[in-house]
Give the backbone structure.
Amino acid sequence: MNTYNELKMLYGAYLGVSSMDNYKTKEYVVKNIEDEINKFIDKNNMYYHDEVLAEAKKQSLITDLQDSLIILKRLNESLELSLLIKEKIRYLKEEEK
């Protein structure tokens, strides 16, 4: 995966976890994802990160939530949050039908 898509996935995960209003400690997870984004930007000298964020904001919520599942597993975050995200994805897919 190239750095553009990797950063886009991180931003998607940030947006996806931010949408999880029913998870009480989401602020901690969001902070961990923010830290991961900042480390990634610094490590890769990404001067176009604002463009990537704008592109990530155009994604559907389902895509953001799917990105969240990938990043949460990588960061060893709460299984409870992953299960809530999977439930929300199922609900949104049912709504689309």
